[in-house]
Amino acid sequence: MLSSLTPWIYGGTGAAAGLGLVWGGCAYAALWPGSRIFGEALIAPRLPGELALTFDDGPNPVWTPRLLDILAGHGVRGTFFLIGNYAHAQPALVRRIAEAGHAIGNHSWSHPNLALTAGTKVADELKRTSGTIEQILGRPVHLFRPPFGARRPKVFHIARSRGLAPVLWNAMTNDWEEPSADRIAENLAHKIDAMTRRGHATNIVLHDGSHRAQGTNREPSVNAAWQLLAKFKAKYRFVTLDEWSRRAI
């Protein structure tokens, strides 16, 4: 009996392994920030003396203002990728971000996994978010970061058709769940050093908000941003992603 089942067992194992490889490849293409399989995105140029601080999932009515005060104290501008329904709820805070000279990008309306979202829904998510931000600020939005970094070719096609440049990153930690600002900053500092050794600028992701709730505590992330500014301000030039995007055109 075992001998008669052996080809099926090995065949099934091989099929499962093949499916695993296919799934792994798709996951890499859809989620890994450095993958270009599903399309090009702005990450970071070969400018090892530059850092871009970017912040996702805001605006957060508690922690975004504190972060803005820290950035202003250091004379640094960052890039904020806003969730559309949060921006709609906090128009004055969106204006404050823009008036301080920070770049603002589209981070979808409700933070879904766009790699698994129907094209019509993707288009609506981006349209509503850009429309809301543009109505608040009176100017268009040009940057787009997909939630979780999740994408497929259709997502980038829709974004570009709306005048949005897709953006990913090359330095991120689990700051959304790490309680220690010291560990967040230390991990990001190691990534900055690694990017510098490779001859690249660093596109850093931190979170001033959470897609799960608008007022989520982001004290560790905000304090980590302060530590990075204190550590690298004298050595590196901090830029917004608008600057890199214009150079890439």
Task: Provide key terms for this protein.
2 domains, single chain, 8-stranded parallel β-sheet, 50% helix, globular, 249 residues, 9 helices, TIM Barrel, alpha/beta, disordered N terminus
Task: Provide structural commentary.
- It is a single chain.
- The protein is of the alpha/beta class and 249 residues long.
- It folds into two domains: 31 residues; 199 residues, TIM Barrel (Alpha-Beta Barrel), CATH 3.20.20.
- It is built from nine helices and eight strands.
- Strands 1, 2, 3, 4, 5, 6, 7 and 8 form an eight-stranded parallel β-sheet that branches.
- α2 runs parallel beside α8 and α5 packs parallel to α6.
- The chain is globular.
- The protein starts with a helix and ends with a helix.
- Euclidean distance between termini CA atoms: 66 Å
Sheet of most strands: 8 strands, parallel
Q: What structural class do the secondary elements suggest?
A: alpha/beta
CATH superfamily assignment of the largest domain?
Glycoside hydrolase/deacetylase
CATH domain topology of the largest domain: TIM Barrel
Task: Write the SSE topology.
Blueprint: H1 2-31, E1 50-58, H2 63-74, E2 79-82, H3 84-89, H4 91-99, E3 103-106, H5 119-137, E4 143-144, H6 153-161, E5 165-166, E6 171-172, H7 181-197, E7 202-207, H8 219-232, E8 237-239, H9 241-248
Parallel strand pairs: 1-2, 1-7, 1-8, 2-3, 3-4, 4-5, 6-7
Helix pairs in contact: 2-8, 5-6, 7-8
Summarize the structure.
With 249 residues, this protein is an alpha/beta fold. It has 2 domains: 1-31; 50-248, TIM Barrel (Alpha-Beta Barrel). It has helices at residues 2-31, 63-74, 84-89, 91-99, 119-137, 153-161, 181-197, 219-232, 241-248, and strands spanning 50-58, 79-82, 103-106, 143-144, 165-166, 171-172, 202-207, 237-239.
